[in-house]
Design brief:
- The chain is α/β, with parallel strands linked by helices.
- It folds into two domains: 228 residues, TIM Barrel; 123 residues, no CATH class.
- The chain is built from 18 helices and eleven strands.
- Helix 1 packs across helix 12.
- It starts with 15 loop residues before the first strand and ends in a 6-residue tail after the last strand.
- The protein binds flavin mononucleotide.
- The site of flavin mononucleotide (FMN) has 26 residues, from helix 10.
């Protein structure tokens, strides 16, 4: 396979990145983000040692769609030989750059000496990145957290080592490994790292609205920003950021967006029983995030967002007069998400999806007054 990447050299400044998202960042979802203004996408994390063993499922994580003209593949690795093989496999599949995961907190990754563990071994990390830079013919970036724990925040030192090792950019998720999503991302700490480094720093954490994104971007002085859960909840956030204005879609309009995702899944997984089975591993899952959408107009929320990120805010959901479809799309019940995914897969067009969703709402009355928490335990 030849090198499919033929675009201009990767520019890490002035961009809005779709974060690497295991499960969520599947190819059809990334295409949905492109349709709503995203320009820079990233793949789901792939284990480098599995790519080296030619694992089909792991190689699939490095694949991009032709419409993704600026795509970064993310790998988890601790050994240079694995990272270089995996990086080159990504380049052969068209990646514009390769990102090394140094933030993943999950046990399986950490016990193998990858992900956030690398933060505790800056010297080894520096050597790994230097080898990657030599052995992979596209830029290498690294995604880190602030540190292992609140009392062990060494991101400044790690960032210096990464710059000296030849990394092209650093993405900083403003929380520690131990914090998971329990606290608001620390954008002051991100700003300090951005000020210390001359390579681009990409700021990441809690961006849910266009006004929070622009405020954090400006105040922190980062080169670029990255959206994770914000994009999973509102795939149209990219366009909102570009246009500096909110789009507050009705439930009908949102259902049409989700129907579009189902169609993109059909195109990717195929429109047959096997394709449906594969799509159903993803589509219902997306509703865990879609159901958290709330309109957050700047006029009502911008000030509150300065004190506490809206991503981390709990919204009471006891409005009695919500339209039926709106209430249905806010419902957090997994069994309902399964049913919604099925009807979206089967419906020929958004109008049919809407008619069937209304029947579903009549069949499954709301459990009432659910409070929706946007924060999640993922990642
Ligand atoms: C479902 C989910 C999957 C994630 N998977 C990855 C991953 O594969 N690699 C990674 O570096 N970070 C992963 N993360 C972390 C995000 O990339 C991002 O750093 C984090 O969610 C903070 O950004 P946010 O506040 O905008 O969500 C994941 C997060 C979520 C919610």
């Amino acid at each position: 396979m030849g090198n499919l990447h033929s675009g201009p050299p990767m520019n890490f400044r002035g961009r809005v990145f779709l974060a690497p998202l295991t499960k969520g960042g599947n190819l059809p979802f990334r295409r949905l983000c492109l349709a709503h203004g995203a320009e820079v996408t990233m793949g789901e994390m792939a284990y480098a040692y599995q790519v080296k063993k030619r694992s089909k499922s792991e190689l699939a994580l490095l694949r991009k769609h032709p419409d993704e003209t600026c795509f970064g593949a993310q790998i988890a690795a601790s050994k240079p030989a694995d990272a270089i093989v995996a990086g080159n496999a990504a380049v052969e599949r068209g990646a514009s750059w390769v990102d090394l995961n140094c933030g993943c907190p999950i046990h399986d990754i950490v016990r193998r000496g990858m992900g956030a563990t690398m933060l505790q071994r800056p010297t080894q990390l520096g050597k790994l990145v230097a080898e990657m830079v030599k052995g992979i013919p596209v830029p290498v970036s690294v995604k880190i957290r602030l540190g292992w724990s609140e009392h062990d925040q060494n991101a400044s030192e790690v960032a210096r080592v990464l710059e000296e090792s030849g990394a092209a950019a650093i993405c900083v998720h403003g929380r520690t490994r131990e914090q998971r999503y329990s606290r608001a991302a620390d954008w002051d700490a991100i700003a300090r790292i951005a000020a210390e480094r001359s390579i681009p720093v990409i700021g990441n954490g809690d961006l849910l609205t266009w006004y929070e994104t622009h405020a954090r971007w400006r105040q922190s002085g980062v080169a670029s920003v990255m959206l994770g859960r914000g994009a999973l909840i509102k795939p149209w956030l990219f366009r909102e950021i570009a246009e500096k204005q909110a789009w507050e879609p009705t439930a009908e309009q949102r259902l049409a967006v989700y129907h579009d995702l189902a169609q993109k899944m059909k195109a990717h997984f195929r429109d047959d029983e096997k394709g449906r089975e594969r799509a159903m591993r993803f589509l219902p899952w997306h509703f865990e995030f879609f159901c958290r959408y709330r309109p957050l107009p700047a006029a009502g929320w911008e000030e509150a967002s300065r004190a506490h990120p809206l991503m981390q805010t709990r919204f009471a959901d006891d409005e009695p007069d919500l339209p039926v479809l709106e209430r249905l799309l806010r419902d957090p019940r997994p069994e309902l998400h399964q049913r919604l995914a099925t009807l979206l897969w089967e419906a020929a067009d958004p109008a049919e999806a809407e008619a069937r969703a209304l029947l579903l709402a009549a069949e499954m009355p709301p459990v009432g007054g659910q409070a929706a928490e946007v924060a999640t335990a993922h990642g």
